[in-house]
Amino acid sequence: MASHSDTLVVFFGATAGANGGKLGSDERELILLVWQIVDLHEKKVGKLQRRLVKPDSLDLTEQCKEETGLTVDELLKAEPLDSVLQQFQQSVSAEVKALGRSSYTLCVDGPLIIRQVLHPEASKKNLVLPECFYSFVDLKKEFYKCCPNAGPAKDLTLPSMLDYVCIPPVTDQMAGATEVENMVQVTLHILAEPYSHKFTGFEAVKYKFESGACSKTEAVDSETVIRARGLPWQSSDQDIARFFKGLNIAKGGVALCLNAQGRRNGEALVRFINSEHRDMALERHKHHMGSRYIEVYKASGEEFLKIAGGTSNEVAQFLSKENQVIIRMRGLPFTSTPQDALGFLGPESPVTDGTDGLLFVKYPDGRPTGDAFVLFACEEYAQNALKKHKQILGKRYIELFRSTAAEVQQVLNRYMSTPLISTLPPPPMVPVPVLATPPFLTTGTTRDCVRLRGLPYTAAIEDILEFMGEHTIDIKPHGVHMVLNQQGRPSGDAFIQMKSADRAFMVAQKCHKKMMKDRYVEVFQCSTEEMSYVLMGGTLNRSGLSPPPCKLPCLSPPTYAAFTSPAALLPTEAALYQPPLLATPRTPQPTHSAAPTLAYYPPQPHAQLYMNMNMNYTAYYPSPPVSPSTVSYFAAPPGSVAAAVAAQPSPAMLQHGTQHGALVRMQGLPYNAGVKDILSFFQGYQYAPDEETHKLSADAILVLYNLSGQRSGEALVTFPSEEAARRAVAERSNQNLYGHSVRLLCCK
Q1: Which residues contact 342 (CB under 8 A, 6 or more apart)?
Q2: Quick one: which of 303, 233, 291, 220 has its CA closest to 262?
Q3: How confident is the model at residue 625 (pLDDT cuts 50, 70, 90)?
Q4: Of 113, 135, 167, 315, which has the fewest CB atoms closer than 10 Å, so is most exposed?
Q5: How far is CA 193 from the centre of its chain?
Q6: b/e string for 518-541 if b means 16 or more Cβ within 10 A?
Q7: Cα 661-666-671 angle, rounded to 5 deg
Q8: Distances (CA, A) of 357 to 88, 222, 286, 335, 400
Q9: 677: Cβ–Cβ under 8 A, 6 or more apart, which residues?
Q10: Does the predicted model carry a pTM greater than 0.85?
């Protein structure tokens, strides 16, 4: 409503649960509406109107019965909310017209009845509220303007305001009518001399959420940000805005959070226009979105900027178009062009500005990630596009989801900061004793591990550490192992290695059936051997251990990682390779060279079970089984990588007496290319021309992965000599492998 309204409608409501300062905090329905008109020019009041509202649930709290005096029998005779609101609008419009006035504005004792009750309930019941409920004046704030010495506006109450101006309160009316008559008394008092107050503080409720971009340089007040947890994975920013209906979210103020795999993790950061709205949002803790309850916590401005802030000009330009619906496409073939994407979406889903409305997500070196974002001018076009969810483009099915400007920023920020080769930092950032410890996973019967079963599928390692509480200090380094299923998704299980069996027992006793988010988690003490069987793909239940579903011969050769020995750390720049898909390092074997070396870990007869465990773990559960740390990843200089790896003999070379090898780097590999494909690519190349023929083996191949656990399109291949490496580069460079031109480089 505009500021020229000449009539106030003093408005009051009560719910079936908490009222007063906690109105709307328990998500209970409206049961009572009371209103009365005040003519601002003539200082006259209209007839008091009181209506009961029939809620869907007739369960009244004892506090409600005591405060309102209403009974279930009375509410049974009442009409539902939509009918009462229609009566309200007709009654007020007729009375305002009879007074010869043209407009009116609601006047309430605090914003809760409008923001925390009417709008959320109408949203859940799919009711369209009259326009008058999108603007109101707060009597407390208006009174504070006249009487600033009465105290802060948020602390004012009807009795305190009446007492300050020496007006006796009305107490002999029915519930609701008493409050309205007292509000009318205060209103008339500040309209009269000496105040002659003009009502100008009109507050608005936003009709819809406005999407937009956020810059990392923007200042975000931490008193305006919350974190919402437990969201359905398919939730959009509009769904979240609907959950907070009645509260004003800042433009572009919904940021959906993504996990390490780039998928939504059921959390979002929401930024409101001020701290008052943030505080009301916190009162919606454990309110429901559909059948799920949502947890709401305080968050900081830094967290919001980390998720939603962007620096890319390309993204800013893409998001500069106003009022666009954003759809995310995932799983695109890496060879897809903008024309392919437009053809897939079809003429019934025209993309805004054609190819300019497409944003393909790429790695820093320009390689495609398989993700893209698309702009549509209206909801109808977006709905038509979403109907193509999981339809085929090329040989792949495409996933389509509603997205947000903040998600665009987050995805671009993540991929653009991903290093080409994931390596651990050199010393002194990584303490030598950590690298010198025995393998983290060893077979044994000591019950120094715990198994967590029934985890929420959105749970991350940070959630597990929070769940463990004070027992976190007793976890071994790199001792948290998330278990994924064959599709690479969370299975609801995790294993944690504790420092001793006593600590594991204590955790199982203290944390068993403790709640994580909306689920209770079972915690059992177990041994490393039992853990190994489950990580291999077997099962662990009350009847004992079941063997894993497949044995060693059924699996492709694993991707081996090279770990720098402690002796090599200080005198060299040797980089440490730790592809995310590798389970854990194998026990280092002694080498035959006195020079600083990289230790490879080939399978040994006595370690057959351990090798099986790692290989199966890699095949079935491709997630990095490490605890979070402050150690960051970055790309090592190619020279140091080459020097570190090329200086070492492969296991096959050690067996045949070769002392040194040369390293070749492969670039531009198809993303589905594995060890066998690389072997086929170099078919016919031998280790030593003057010895018995020994073909290139899988031990000499290292496939590189990015931080998302995906193949990076690069690999390192060890040849027996520099001459053999140069020959391979000269003869095989720029040759095709499955339609991709593969570049070969000799590392020096």
Answers
A1: 351, 354, 355, 358
A2: 233
A3: very low
A4: 167
A5: 56
A6: eeebebbbbbbbbbbbbbbbbebe
A7: 135
A8: 46, 33, 38, 19, 16
A9: 669, 670, 737, 738
A10: no
Block residue for tokens 């007074």: 99
Q: Does residue 231 contact residue 268 with C-beta atoms inside 8 Å? A: yes
pLDDT tens column, 325-371? 899 999 999 889 999 999 999 999 999 989 889 999 888 778 888 99
Please name the amino acid found at residue 395.
K
Taking CA atoms, 66 is separated from 29, 61, 71, 175, in Å, by 17, 9, 10, 10
| Closest CA relative to residue 650, chosen from 575, 573, 718 | 718
Distance of CA 676 to the CA centre of its chain: 36
Give dist(CA 121, CA 288) in Å, integer: 11
Which of residues 601 and 505 earns the better pLDDT score? 505
Residue 729, both tokens? 């580069």
In angstroms, the CA 646 to CA 721 distance is: 10
Which tens digits make up the pLDDT trace of 524-553?
898 887 787 776 666 555 444 444 443 333
- Side chain identity at 693, as an amino acid letter? T
pLDDT of 432 > 60? The answer is no
Instruction: Specify the DSSP class assigned to residue 321.
Output: S
Q: For residues 387 and 534, is the Cβ–Cβ distance under 8 A?
A: no
Q: Which segment, 138-142, 485-489, 663-667, is predicted with the most confidence on average?
A: 138-142
Alpha helices in 377-500 (DSSP H): 379-386, 405-416, 432-436, 461-468
- CA nearest neighbour of 76 among 124, 31, 121, 23: 31
Complete DSSP assignment for 122-185: HHHTT----GGGGEEEEHHHHHHHH-GGG--GGG--HHHHHHHTT-PPP-SSPTTHHHHHHHHH
In angstroms, the Cα distances linking 456 to 465, 520, 526, 709 are 14, 9, 21, 22
